[in-house]
Design goal:
The protein has eleven helices and 18 strands. It is α+β, with helices and mostly antiparallel strands and about 375 residues long. Strands 10, 11, 12, 13, 14, 15, 16, 17 and 18 form a nine-stranded antiparallel β-sheet that branches. Strands 3-2-1-4-5 form a five-stranded parallel β-sheet, sandwiched between helices. The structure holds adenosine-5'-diphosphate and magnesium ion (MG). The site of adenosine-5'-diphosphate (ADP) has 16 residues, from strand 15.
């Protein structure tokens, strides 16, 4: 029986731990937060710091293989840990180094032959106005590292809004992206094992609110061109980057001047993804099971849609939690949602605005 380590104890770690255990593995979770959701389901919880190389080496040495559900662990530290431990990290820290940095990520995707939105690296804030004029407004300024769920992003409608955000910008390196007019957003999850076997899910259609995922729907209401092209690009990226485990690829679907659909790769995540929760209800195998199979070196099975319905996954954010009822949520309106299927609550003790607290599914 294999011992699998997961760096990060959030909801993705919790659901991955359940899949790994169903495939017979023992699961150890590492997270500095003692209230981590995945600590409730894992076999062994390690509550130590992300910056303690010794503790990380000890954790790796207790496992046969280690993966992560949290991307913001220092790559330098992980390289150091990898040099001191025989235990493999999947996907490797080389992939994490690319996906942690929006500029390396975009250049990496371009080098592999796939389009990304026009962008510029902003090392000095004094360059910003000139670069924004060159790309042409509207633009989005993003911190190069550390951002997630729309955090560290500034929408620049015009020069006026640029001047307004200037005083509030943190000291950081930024990427400036052309803000494109989205026809829709989709994502595709690929699983790849050590033998190089590679399978992908039918794509998900995603709706964001304020930069954070609101709903995911499957099947995606997109053309067969978008469906096939997204899967082809995602599988190619996973293969060329030699991913072992999961790779999620987020895409923008945009209409070009001649009204043709173009796919831009937005982001890569070498881990299970929020949009992929839907696979627990919509597909023959879930993202968590396919990740478990890749980590345990088992055969991969191509996921197919089951049930014939359109399934929607909707996130429940901390904003819905009510302080008057002791920071709880009134579940009655959710249970009475038309087509309600199921709900998952992560058991986080504290609700905060925009914090992901759970999700539910309904049939549309
Ligand atoms: P995060 O790491 O926070 O998910 P993203 O780059 O994926 O960051 O941005 C979050 C969301 O903001 C996207 O899913 C999309 O809805 C919107 N967005 C980001 N960049 C662009 C862009 N260049 N053009 C249009 N919309 C964008
Ligand atoms: Mg994103």
């Amino acid at each position: 029986m294999k011992i699998v380590g997961i760096l990060g104890g959030g909801q993705l770690g919790l659901l991955l731990a359940q899949s790994l255990q169903r495939y017979g593995a023992t699961v150890n979770v590492y997270d500095p937060n003692p209230e981590s959701p995945a600590f409730k389901t894992c076999n062994e919880a390690t509550c130590d710091s992300w910056t303690d190389a010794e503790k990380l080496v000890q954790f790796f040495n207790k496992c046969d293989v280690v993966t992560y559900e949290f991307e913001n662990v220092s790559v330098d530290l992980l390289e150091d840990v990898q040099a001191k431990s025989e235990t493999a990290l999947y996907p490797s820290e080389k992939i994490l180094a690319i996906t942690q940095n929006r500029i390396l990520e975009k250049k990496g995707v371009q080098n592999l032959g796939h389009p990304v939105v026009p962008f510029a690296k902003i090392s000095e804030i004094s360059q910003l106005a000139l670069e924004a004029r060159t790309l042409s407004y509207p633009c989005i300024l993003k911190t190069t590292t550390g951002g997630y769920d729309g955090k560290g992003q500034y929408f620049l409608k015009d020069e006026l809004s640029l001047n307004k955000v200037l005083p509030e910008l943190p000291k950081a390196e930024f990427i400036l992206e052309k803000a494109v007019d989205l026809k829709c957003e989709v994502s595709c999850i690929v699983s790849r094992n050590k033998k190089g076997q590679c399978v992908s899910f039918p794509i998900f259609e995603n709706v964001h609110k304020d930069g954070i995922l609101f709903q995911t729907q499957q099947p995606a209401k997109v053309s067969s061109f978008v469906q096939d092209e997204a899967r082809k690009i995602a599988e190619n990226l996973a293969t060329k980057l030699e991913v072992v485990g999961l790779l999620t690829v987020e895409f923008f679907v945009v209409l070009d001047e001649s009204d043709e659909e173009t796919l831009y790769v937005n982001e890569l995540a070498p881990r299970p993804h929020n949009s992929g929760h839907i696979t627990l209800k919509s597909c023959s195998i879930s993202q968590f099971d396919l990740h478990a199979r890749a980590l345990l070196d088992l055969n991969l099975e191509t996921p197919v849609l089951v049930g014939g319905n359109t399934i929607v996954m909707e996130n429940l954010l901390g904003d819905e939690w009510n302080s008057e009822s002791g920071w709880d949520i009134d579940l009655k309106p959710i249970f009475s949602t038309k087509g309600f299927v199921d709900i998952v609550l992560y058991g986080k003790p504290e609700a905060r605005p925009k914090r992901k607290m759970g999700h539910f599914y309904f049939v549309r």
